[in-house]
Design brief:
Oligomer: heterotetramer
Enzyme class (chain A): translocase
Keywords (chain A): ATP-binding, Cell membrane, Ion transport, Membrane, Nucleotide-binding, Translocase, Transport
Number of strands of chain C: 2
Structural class of chain C: mainly alpha
Low-confidence stretches of chain C: none
Helix content of chain A: 25-40%
Chains: A alpha/beta (about 300), B mainly alpha (about 280), C mainly alpha (about 325), D alpha/beta (about 250)
Distance between the termini of chain C: 12 Å
Strand order of the largest sheet of chain A: 6-7-8-3-9-10-12-11
Distance between the termini of chain A: 28 Å
Helix content of chain C: over 70%
Mean pLDDT of chain C: 82
GO molecular function, one term (chain A): ATP hydrolysis activity
Number of helices of chain C: 15
Shape of chain C: globular
Number of strands of chain A: 12
Mean pLDDT of chain A: 91
Largest interface: B-C, 48 and 60 residues
Strand content of chain C: under 5%
Low-confidence stretches of chain A: none
Shape of chain A: globular
Organism (chain A): Candidatus Syntropharchaeum caldarium
Strand order of the largest sheet of chain C: 1-2
Largest sheet of chain C: 2 strands, antiparallel
Structural class of chain A: alpha/beta
Order of helices and strands of chain C: HHHHEEHHHHHHHHHHH
Membrane topology (chain A): Peripheral membrane protein
Chain lengths: ~300, ~280, ~325, ~250
């Protein structure tokens, strides 16, 4: 059963240089207790997609489409209704904990804020709950850490605080934006293990460019390129048999798989190529790819791919 | 950096900045062409305390000088002091900022001097110096420069300190480039926008300080600035209760206000363009 | 550690201020007496007979060696002896301390008002960035801030004092007035305070306003504001709990240091309103060439400003957790 | 060709009571001509400081760096300036490695000018270098912010190549880049290395990347090199507990 349904979502930013089409016609469903990985490279629009689910994008943006969460379209809710969902039923783990935590407020208070707001606990009860939360995310000595300031914690610990903060209101859906970015290999491994554990009974949209991390934690994967989705499949099938040439190229660029690069560079979101957006970099490009924009094709085994090779 | 490159273009779109620049140019042109614009020699004396009429647009002052001509010539003095001071102070500040940011040990000593200057109260010190020094335009300029360079040094230095750690500076060093080459070719062009902002801010400060000093009677009486005119107007016994303030006090005061405002507008616009924090790019 | 360095630095600064005060009359080109006796408005030397010159010379102790002069000077300052005022014919310290309370009253009240008002308006402006309200506030604050304080003071006197006749135009109290109660006295003082204080507030408000606006704009672009929004906090809660404190921290010192500007501004405002504070005293000392008084007033003003800076510095050390818990 | 002996770099803090952080602590290793030594470790382990100390971008506290038998640390300022072009460094952030106010053409021409190459030859050489690193001639008139991170890293490589160096320190040259672009740049570095017989110190936190790039690997932890050996030895038979931890949890893709 679907918890979140995104239909034909478009998010455009008007700028001096032209309109940035950060998200350009995305359809995506997240099922209950599903962990969906959203994979893409810098500037493909994946962060904007995550932010627009939470409606955290500035007011100058042009947004179109539907984001249906439990039969309610988030885009048509009033600001007050949205605020109740934000941080309550849907929580977010933002990238870069160093700057995402307020440097002059104790971490305990930053978590307690959410608890008081969404669960209506008083100060004392909230503090008790915060200490439990910190213990859950395995921060050593929670009674003491609750009163630390962010700069007194290491990067890994800050990331745990971010996770505790997202879990504080017991959300049904977590949107995690690059939670493993900038972490050391060993720390990253622990954070992934922790995230897997705490999302056991929840849904999560896991936004990342780190294919390894996605492979470890996700059930399904959606691949994003130049503002649109190119492929959507289960984690096993996409890693063993990627269908879209871009997915294939991305996997082959990994050092483990021989560092075979994709030629060229990602297009700017202001003027994307005609036809298939990937065709200038594609080894299998055909005449039709230059002329027509491919639609998402649903295959028999439940996979979907946007490529004329499978049309 | 991206912003800095586009800055010229963006500045034109900034209405506040263009307004300021426009006003400023009018004043500068007035100052340059004062002898052609002023109907009389400012020292020529007529009947004192005459109200405005067709001969004297703004009347005459207590010793019979034409106020309109006085006002036009005063713009020369005020702007000359302001711009000369800013040019010298910004120049010294930029050079010392560059070197003290690049050479740590030299910078340490310069910064202690700067700290001291900035900790001492500027205006009282300027007043007491002006009292003890013989009054002349050049002495005023020396005093203002003395207290003007340290702030520029500090600002430029902190910018150089961040620039110096950029990898491209390291890569220049690896290529065998000398210190002076790096400073001149790679660091100076990147701090230049900041230097311009500092220049504008300093000019604004000097206009205000010079007006204040002259108002207190510490200016050069042989070359009257707007502040000096206000000083004599203020000293006139019935300035507040008769109508003379309208043509004697108001015009020089408003000139000061408008020039400062123009400088503030230009500085503000420049800062807004150059401060990356204020113009964050989306996505 | 931090504290020790800071305190040493401040002691050094006081020392330098005192030394400048000592050195200035002695450093002037030529004989100090000539420069002292030059008429400040014309630059023309005033003819003076040898007796008076000798008197001044021995008054400044100029016949002694310089090191001895210096130690004498320091000793006198420690004894609160700032010399003898020529114009008032009274000890300088006495004249100054009598005037000090009015300056502290004027500067204290204005500082309180302009800081709160400036910070508030700056925060509002940043919050409404780019909207009509922000632009309106910005242009009005920048415009009013471009008025030299003495000019605004003169306009106020003409408008509120003479034309509308609702406020007194000079002094800190009504002369020869006998008050029937303390409340009456308070009312009279307040009545006299309003115009000078408003002038000071209006001409200095651009400082804290711009600082707060810039600082706040920076903070509002930070990631932790997005985090706060993602928690579902209301805009007001974000402003109150996350933005204002963070924006205030880096500017506390700068704002407090502007206390110095306030006292400088007081020199002009007191002069125009004939407000009997230390600033007016400084102006009088300049006009009457009363040098001992001038130097005394300069020293006291400098010390007050340095003290204000010191308090500001120390407060900051205790406010910011990043500095406190290093 | 390069021999590092007892190299240490301590950072001090505090004025009265000095505290020292040992960023690099008694490091010894050598690199043969044409060899690539991979240096892995977590952030803050001192690997960047080590790389910079070798090139004297930071003055080391103690030790020797012998380059073809010459002790670099003993050179005076002028000697160092003439010696430096033989060693080069590639930095982590390509966008910050180029002067934002210089066109790509000027940036690439600069090392040639500094080496006093004849004016008339410069233009031709720049064209040659642009092609050599896989850029097209139209890029020459652009500014760094108009190019992508990967393209800027190519420009950086062109600048480095212009000097004909013997030894290059590459400090996380691809960690700011996307995977598909990372592969392009790493392959380009490999090609150039083979072609020009370069000697490389390759610093990275990514074990897989280091494995692909290096002949030998040194593992750094807490300012010290805790283990060093051939690539396959490190991966199959790690001795030090930290190396074991690194190698054990390879994500299986």
């Amino acid at each position: 059963m679907n918890l979140l349904k995104i239909k034909a979502l478009r998010v455009y930013f008007p700028t001096d240089d032209g309109i940035v089409k950060a998200v350009d016609g995305v359809d995506l469903n997240i099922k209950r207790e599903e962990i969906l990985g959203l994979i893409g490279e810098t500037g493909c629009g994946k962060t904007v997609l995550g932010m627009s689910i939470m409606r955290l994008i500035q007011s100058t943006t042009l947004t179109d489409g539907e984001i249906i969460y439990k039969d309610r379209d988030l885009l048509s809710l009033s600001d007050d209704e949205m605020r109740k969902i934000r941080g309550g039923e849907i929580a977010m783990v933002l990238q870069n904990p160093m700057t995402s935590l307020n440097p002059v407020i104790r971490v305990g208070e930053q978590i307690a804020e959410t608890i008081r707001l969404h669960q209506g606990l008083d100060k004392k009860a909230a503090r008790k709950r915060v200490i439990e939360m910190l213990r859950d995310v395995r921060i050593p000595d929670p009674e003491k850490s609750v009163d630390s300031y962010p700069h007194q914690l290491s990067g890994g610990m800050q990331e745990r605080v971010m996770i505790a903060m997202a879990l504080a209101s017991d959300p049904e859906l977590i949107i995690a934006d690059e939670p493993t970015k900038g972490l050391d290999v060993t720390v990253k491994r622990e954070i992934i293990r922790l995230m897997k554990e705490v999302t056991a009974k929840r849904s999560m949209l896991f936004i990342t460019h780190d294919l390894g991390a996605a492979a470890e934690i996700c059930d399904n994967i959606a691949v994003m390129y130049a503002g649109e989705l190119l492929e959507h499949a289960s984690v096993d099938s996409i890693f063993s048999e990627p269908l879209h040439p871009y997915s294939e190229g991305l996997l082959n660029s990994l050092p483990e798989r021989g560092l075979k690069p994709i030629r060229g560079i990602s297009p700017s979101l202001i003027d994307t190529p005609q036809g298939c957006r990937f065709h200038p970099r594609c080894d299998y490009a055909m005449e039709i790819c230059r002329e027509k924009h491919p639609e998402m094709v649903k295959l028999e085994d439940g996979r979907a791919v946007r490529c004329f090779l499978y049309a | 950096m991206r912003g800095a490159l586009k800055s010229g273009n963006v500045f034109c779109k900034n209405r506040i900045g263009v307004t300021g620049l426009g006003i400023l140019s009018v004043f500068i042109l007035t100052a340059i062409f004062a002898p052609f614009l002023a109907p009389y020699d400012p020292c020529e004396m007529f009947e004192p305390m005459a109200p405005p009429d067709s001969q004297h647009v703004l009347g005459t002052n207590d010793i019979g000088q034409d106020i309109w001509s006085e006002l036009i010539y005063a713009s020369r003095i005020s702007l000359f002091i302001a711009f000369t001071t800013s040019i010298i102070a910004t120049f010294i500040g930029t050079l010392s900022g560059l070197f003290s940011g690049y050479y740590e040990r030299f910078g340490f000593f310069v910064m202690r001097v700067v700290d001291l200057f900035l900790a001492l109260p500027r205006l009282p010190l300027i007043i007491i110096l002006a009292v003890f020094m013989p009054t002349s335009i050049w002495n005023l300029i020396i005093i203002f420069v003395l207290f003007g360079w340290p702030i520029t040094t500090r600002i430029i230095r902190s910018e150089v300190l961040t620039l110096r750690t950029r990898p491209y500076i390291d890569s220049e060093r690896m290529m065998g480039a000398g210190d002076l080459y790096i400073l001149g070719r790679h660091i100076l062009p990147n701090i230049f926008p900041l230097v311009v902002v500092q220049f504008v801010m300093e000019a604004r400060h000097v206009i205000l300080a010079e007006a204040g000093l002259s108002f207190l009677g510490l200016g050069d009486p042989t070359s009257k600035s707007w502040g000096m005119m206000l000083h004599y107007a203020f000293e006139y016994p019935t300035i507040f209760i008769s109508e003379v303030w309208k043509w004697w006090m108001l015009p020089p005061g408003l000139c000061i206000v408008v020039v400062i405002l123009a400088l503030v507008f230009v500085g503000f616009a420049l800062e807004e363009i150059l401060n990356p924090r204020l113009r964050r790019e989306i996505v | 550690m931090h504290h020790l360095t800071k305190i040493t630095a401040y002691i050094l600064i006081i020392f330098v201020a005192i030394s400048i005060n000592f050195a200035l009359p002695r450093m002037m080109p030529g004989d100090p007496i000539t420069s002292l006796t030059d008429d400040p408005t014309t630059g023309m030397p005033v003819i003076m007979d040898e007796d008076i010159k000798e008197e001044i010379r021995s008054y400044y102790g100029l016949d002694k060696p310089i090191s001895e002069q210096y130690t004498d000077y320091l000793k006198d300052i420690l004894k609160c002896d700032l010399g003898w005022s020529i114009y008032y014919n009274a000890p300088v310290a006495e004249v100054i301390f009598e005037r000090l309370k009015w300056t502290l009253l004027l500067v204290g009240t204005s500082t309180l008002i302009y800081m709160i008002l400036g910070i508030f308006l700056g925060a509002v402006s940043a919050w409404k960035r780019g909207e009509r309200g922000d632009l309106g506030l910005l242009v009005s604050v920048l415009s009013i801030g471009s008025f030299p304080s003495f000019f605004l003071a003169m306009l106020f006197i003409i408008l509120f004092g003479v034309k509308l006749d609702i406020f007194p135009i000079f002094g800190a109290t009504t002369p020869f007035m006998e008050y029937s109660s303390t409340f009456d006295a308070f009312k009279d003082v307040l009545y006299h305070l309003i115009l000078p204080a408003s002038t000071l507030v209006l001409t200095s408000i651009d400082g804290p306003y711009l600082l707060m606006r810039n600082s706040m704009l920076g903070v509002l672009g930070e990631d932790y504001i997005v985090t706060a929004r993602a928690k579902g906090l209301t805009e007001w809660a974000i402003l109150k709990d996350h933005a204002i404190k963070n924006a205030l921290l880096p500017i506390t010192t700068v704002i407090a240091i502007r206390m110095g500007f306030m006292i400088s501004g007081a020199i002009f405002v007191e002069t125009v309103f004939a407000y009997p504070g230390i600033g007016k005293l400084l102006y009088d000392a300049v006009s009457f060439s009363d040098y001992p008084l001038l130097q005394g007033a300069f020293l006291i003003i400098t010390l007050i400003i340095i003290a204000a800076n010191f308090i500001a510095d120390m407060t900051y050390l205790y406010l910011d957790p990043r500095v406190k818990h290093g | 060709m390069l021999e590092v002996k007892g190299l240490s770099k301590y950072f001090s803090s505090g004025i009265l009571r000095k505290r020292y952080t040992k960023a690099v602590d008694d490091v010894n290793f050598s690199i043969k001509r044409g060899e690539t030594l991979g240096l892995v470790g977590e952030s803050g382990c001192g690997k960047t400081t080590l790389g910079r100390s070798i090139l004297r971008l930071i003055e080391p506290t103690a030790g020797k760096v012998l380059f073809d038998g010459i002790d670099i640390l003993k050179l005076n300022k002028k000697e160092l300036r003439t010696f430096r072009p033989r060693m080069q460094m590639i930095f982590q952030d390509p966008d910050a490695s180029l002067n934002p106010r210089m066109k790509i053409r000027e940036s690439i021409a600069e090392p040639l000018k500094l080496q006093r190459v004849e004016k008339c030859e410069i233009e031709g050489k720049v064209q040659e270098l642009i092609e050599r690193v896989g850029l097209s001639p139209e890029h020459a008139n652009r500014y760094p912010h108009q190019l992508s991170g990967g393209q800027n890293q190519r420009v950086v490589l062109a600048r480095v190549l212009a000097l004909n160096p013997d030894f290059i320190v590459a400090d996380e040259p691809t960690s700011a880049l996307d995977v598909s672009v990372q592969a392009q740049i790493l392959n380009l570095i490999q090609d150039l290395k083979r072609e020009l017989n370069l000697t490389l110190l390759f610093i990275s936190h990514d074990l897989e990347v280091v494995r692909y790039m290096s002949d030998r690997i040194a593992v750094m932890y807490g300012g010290k090199i805790v283990e060093m050996g051939d690539v396959e030895d490190i991966f199959n038979d790690a001795k030090h507990p930290y190396t074991k931890l690194l190698v054990s949890g390879k994500e299986v893709v």
